[in-house]
């Protein structure tokens, strides 16, 4: 009799269990079997002066206009720096979603820079866990200013400065992203007697989102005074500290900031920063990035840029 | 007496199980296709998701659809980023889903095309809406091909568009679905 009862109960349980199969629960469980990549660790390809792990998307081109005005402490006669500015104009193109190239020209020392950037690792969770994103960066800056007795150039090679970086970033949550940027820079010509040809530096940067479309950014570039007993930089040069805001609207990213560097490329903000925050040598500046899409399927939908 | 009762119970159980096996076929796919389209005079925006997961129980007519927002592919990477970051807030609401039940009784053993309507809950951007979605179910050699088109109003799901780009994004987005479902094995 007990057997019978148990059999009856069992038969009841099976039918109840099948009827209650929750289809949605089953689908939710499948979420872990996909890879979730962390998107938009930063809004732009720059944190402020230095690069971020982000690259331009495939077949997209960024036109970046960057300005650094004069020093805020230069007085009312100079309209607190707004009378003058250093400029960098650049075109930066995404060959794939992971590989991009860029070409820029800075008014400071009439410098032309080319760079290549490759997204090596992408932060992800789910099926594959990757705690950080890593992007590799290499650039060449060419000083095209006229040779002078102060800064004579005898060969083209002397005009080149190479920079290599590993950009390592983590998006901790929707708001906070941090990045470490170990850097090696080699300048063929050390412009000052105490400048070393090789400079080793570490960049620390991050962003904190204030709203969906704005964020507060900060960046500090630390260059030790000496490495293995060798002085890296002439003592007049300082480390760069920058604070700023990102504002994103559709295809534009506006970055407004205060920095003690007037250079906007690695060679300049690592090796040639003269300003000191403590002296009030602060430069107001901005980067404006406009993205254009050159995707064929995009053209079909009858629009250029987004 | 005891054995007789036991036999009866066993038969009952067996027949019940058989009935369940015969009718409670689960159809599924992990590669369903959902696309959406936003049309304005200024700009057209479209995206497609080819990794939509769908389960359909032929016994109860219940259907569950679930898709990850990050799996939507846009022609422009920046759009995709903004879709996830600014509009759908994917970190908070990673998936959109629909759970419902067909109001028609369908003979899954017979090939043919049937108009269907499913009453259920559409969950987008964390806002649940009761909807009746209409579509077509085609039975073809044990396969179920479900197609369905419907519109979603952004305001119904609390999806906010900043005034600066309001002219570029339609108030109502049209959504197309095509799911090819096959019988689920060892269910």
UniProtKB/TrEMBL annotation, chain A:
Q: Which residues cross the membrane?
A: none
**Superkingdom as given in the UniProt entry:** Bacteria
Which InterPro entries does this one have? DUF5777
Q: Does the keyword Signal apply?
A: yes
Q: Which residues form a coiled coil?
A: none
Q: Which UniProt keywords apply?
A: Signal
Q: Which stretches make up the DUF5777 domain?
A: 42-292
Q: Which Pfam family, any one, appears in the UniProt record?
A: DUF5777
Q: Does the keyword Cell wall biogenesis/degradation apply?
A: no
Q: Which residues form the signal peptide?
A: 1-19
> What is the protein's name according to its record?
DUF5777 domain-containing protein
Automatic annotation (TrEMBL), chain B:
Provide the Lipid/polyisoprenoid-binding YceI-like domain boundaries: 58-178
Q: Write down a Pfam family by its short name.
A: YceI
Signal peptide extent:
1-24
What keywords are annotated for this sequence in UniProt? Answer: Signal
UniProt key word Signal: yes
Quote the InterPro entries the UniProt record gives: Lipid/polyisoprenoid-bd_YceI, TTHA0802/YceI-like_sf
Note whether Transmembrane occurs among the keywords: no
Q: Per its record, how is this protein called by name?
A: Lipid/polyisoprenoid-binding YceI-like domain-containing protein
Q: Which organism is it from?
A: Dyadobacter beijingensis
